[in-house]
């Protein structure tokens, strides 16, 4: 697949995503339930189905791009991804405490990470084994020495070490039910309560590192625009729990901007919100 023309691989990717959408009924229903919350429409609304279907197609493109990673070099990443807000990362690193770089499963997050790692050292805390396998394709490319993948075990210690070295620490926030495996906090996401891991806010509170929320948006020509938002600084008061909840809510509010603007680029195939209570 790495040697096929992009036009053919993307056509195959879209077809594959379409087939998965049609055949994997349980994932289709979960995804539609998620987008019903985002769009504030009933699960059976045609617009909900349209966005969910497009999300599967875009995910097919994403998987295809990951398979092509071994052919890509730093020049390719610079050509494929333009970044808005890189000054926020640089300003954070100028403080000497590292930067906590948070995102969601959106667009092509690995490609964006590779682009950023061309300029600064990036540590990624893998949220599950499947994600680590995908990331291994990226890390296996010899030119990507600035990316280090860490397993979730001992993640806080590894992340603090990276921040002390004034490096970036990348975290994913949209874990859905897997957030229960970590310290977590309930906040409003699209005006609906759900739980998010509190590790980013905790790290920022302990280390003093700023948090930068970012995502990588796919353009119509299958190039990308990385967008890094202004930093979030976590206030440290005597009320640690309140500090963590307030900071996590700020992170989630920034993440909403990306999902609201490009909902079909969010790959959320697991339940993101608790199921409504049955009467």
Description:
- The protein is an alpha/beta fold and 279 residues long.
- The protein is 47% helix and 17% strand.
- The strands form two sheets. A seven-stranded mixed beta sheet has the order 1-9-8-2-5-3-4, with helices on both faces. A two-stranded antiparallel sheet has the order 6-7.
- The longest helix is centred in the N-terminal third of the chain and has 22 residues, at 46-67.
- It is globular and about 50 Å long.
- The termini are far apart.
- The mean pLDDT is 89.
| Largest beta-sheet details | 7 strands, mixed
Count of strand segments = 9
Mean pLDDT: 89
Name the helix and strand elements from N-terminus to C-terminus, one letter apiece.
Answer: HHHHEHEHEHEHEEEHEEH
| Straight-line N-to-C gap | 50 Å
Strand content: 15-25%
Strand order of the largest sheet: 1-9-8-2-5-3-4
What is the radius of gyration? 18 Å
Helical run tally: 10
Task: Assign a percent range to the helix content.
Answer: 40-55%
Poorly predicted ranges: none
Shape type: globular
Indicate the structural class: alpha/beta
Short description:
The chain is built from 10 helices and 9 strands.
Keywords:
alpha/beta; 47% helix; two-stranded antiparallel sheet; seven-stranded mixed β-sheet; single chain; globular
